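Lab notebook, bench 4. The sequencing result for the construct came back, and we need a structural model before the next group meeting so we can plan mutations. Quick request posted to the team channel:

Model the 3D structure of this chain.
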Amino acid sequence: MIRHGSAARLFSAVAIPALVAFGLGLPAASTAATAQSLTTLPNVADLADKLLPAVVEISVESKVAGGPQVDVPQLPDDSPFKDFFDDFFKKRQGEGGGERTVNSMGSGFIIDSSGVVVTNNHVVEGAESIEIRMQDGTTMKAELKGRDPKTDLAVLLVKPEKPLPTVSFGDSDGLRIGEWVMAIGNPFGLGGSVSLGIVSARNRDINAGPYDDFIQTDAAINKGNSGGPLFNMTGQVVGINTAIFSPTGGSVGIGFSVPANTAKGVVDQLWKYGETRRGWLGVKVQSVTDDIAESMGLGKPHGALVADVTEGSPGKAAGIEAGDVIIAFNGKPINEMKELPRAVAETEIGKEVTLKALRKGKEIELKVAIGRLEDGEKQIAQEDAGKTPDAAPKTATLLGMTVSGMTDELRTKYAIDEKVSGVVVTEVAAEGLAADKGVAAGDVVMEAGGKPVTAAADVSDAMAAAQKAGKTAVLLLISKGGKAGETRFVALKVK
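Done. Here's the predicted structure in token form:
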């Protein structure tokens, strides 16, 4: 009865456009064409047959710290999900305490017949053993060749007895919103599952990492699909399915895939070297907001605002300064802040590039030799703490906050890094200007109006100077929580 009722509702829904068309006096031929267009959907059966052999299920065994028992759903004996839940939850929990073995599943795809498999980093992270299963039932032990948490990608190697079926990467930059795409993977342990949808959006930033540039799709993606391919209608991999937005834990039509053009370079490096080799500039950047643009006289928000430059970095050697707004890198315009890290990361290490920046309203051009990010991260981790001069302990209340000169007591109280100098924010009005911009007690104001700050009065002087110059806001460089390298610019209105 339910199935019959559903069919009746479908029929009614399809019939409505025809009724409307006739009511408008459209010719019968037009109505027939409309009805036909409603039923014209891509037939992907042949494409799925071709691609399925190159998509694999991935089983991972790992050790985790023991903990409390997890409630397992009570399912009927004839449920198709009973074995899945029993195997991957109930039987693997252990009794708590010490280490226990857990199994998890994901998806992947073969890009080289010798046995190179691409998947997500989070699928294989912490794995004790990895096994792949192909569509024909063949299973093989896999070796982790390399992984990259920043893009959530990993490369596995297997040793097949014969050449394996493969798929290849396509051009994800050519994707259009509304274009049909197909996902193949292993949702909930149900291998060889195919789902169809469209590209819902591009260039999504979901705060998953520094190089977020996701494809959004409504093709059904669920737990277990992670690491599986997203194909275009010519059978090329245009994305790697990575994450979903879901209040229920299952697909609600909002899934995210790493673009193929992002993955290509990362996968190639992991395959060749077992690690990534990204470009490094050595600057911390932030977005140029409307108020920051106004306070700097930029006209409109654009570019990447340099909040900090790492000592000993390529950017420092090239003469980049905090307060510079980078508007072009290696001939490519930088319209939004997030474009710069990706452009730098994709640049060949050692290559000299030209960047354009705005400095105090004037355009400048700098030459910089790109370093290696991984070396820069090691350098920062090993860098010795510097020393800062003592500052007068006087306070001032302005712009919705109270600032005090740096003292040993305040440095200890707020755990302020030794290399951070300026005045300490000791109090923030709940509904004041500073609070609205996310300023909090323990932050350190390092610069005000483009000048270093050593005393509370310096902030007052910068505010007065901004008002005298007819500006509506004063630009502050703030160290968040007093942490070195955690700096950002904040524009606070002065009138």
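Confidence is low (pLDDT under 50) at residues 1-36, 80-85, 87-92, 384-392.
Will bring this to the meeting.
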